Amino acid sequence: MMTSHWILGPGAIGRLLAHSLSPLAAVTLIGRRALPGQQTLTTPEGERRGQRLNTLTVAQLGADAHEAPDFVHITTKAMAAEAALESIASVIPPSTPLVLWQNGFLAQPRITQSWPGPVLCATTTQGAYLTGDGNVVHAGRGPTFMGDLNNQHDALAEALAQSLSQAGFSATAVNDIRSRLWQKLAVNAAINPLVALHRVRNGELRDPAYAGRVEAVVQEVAAIMQAEGVPSPSGGHDEEAWQALVWQVVQNTANNKASMLQDVEAKRPTERGAILGPLIESAQHHGLPCEVLQTLDAEIAALEASYLNAARH
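The chain above was modelled as a monomer; its predicted structure follows.
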């Protein structure tokens, strides 16, 4: 029997997920505003594929009766995840499995604690961006990992990973998703805020003008990771392992325009609270220095305020 997936948040990853799953499953893409049903995916090889997707607004979802989905994927930004879930919670059974695709480590523990049903967390290095209401560009392929924070839903994570892999998403169920989310958070904290502040591509962080600051961020982050018991992906707990990881990612994604930079350019709120917030909170909890992270957070907050306040007047 075909599984059914609701994808809440038709951003880049949401639409990439919808395009990937549509040939194999019943998919509904849900957003706050109406989107054209005819959508186009541009592959990493440059091929354009048109596909009709079932699109609904949250309001339409509440107005009609719908069969409960097998999975609800929440693909909004981190700061919008809880409100997005709240907007549809009344039309899905509380036992419905959720899949969280957010950056950072803000929404995942909160929703895991508050939602009665299973909550899976996913972390992916699939690259995608939107070019208008009808087109998503799949910029690069990468692995996806999923699991739940309390390791209670291994079979469910395994089944979903298999479905996603059949859809070309290269997914693996893991029992250390908490560590993987923290690892991604550590790398994001060293790259995203700095490229957003200086309006540069990832690879430009290697320039002497920025490299010292990257290393200062990683120094604080490495100590926080050690206190949280999170090893680097290479297994090392020392600062050297984290520095090596961050510079490797900078090299691998040299031409990427990080999501926080895309947000700043589009004058949208950034995910600073989900990326820098948990690190600062953890540092304070463990009595560790976090002046570099706090300064970075304040700079991003000021940058955001400069354009968000201007938009209100």
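Residues 177-198 form the longest helix (22 residues).
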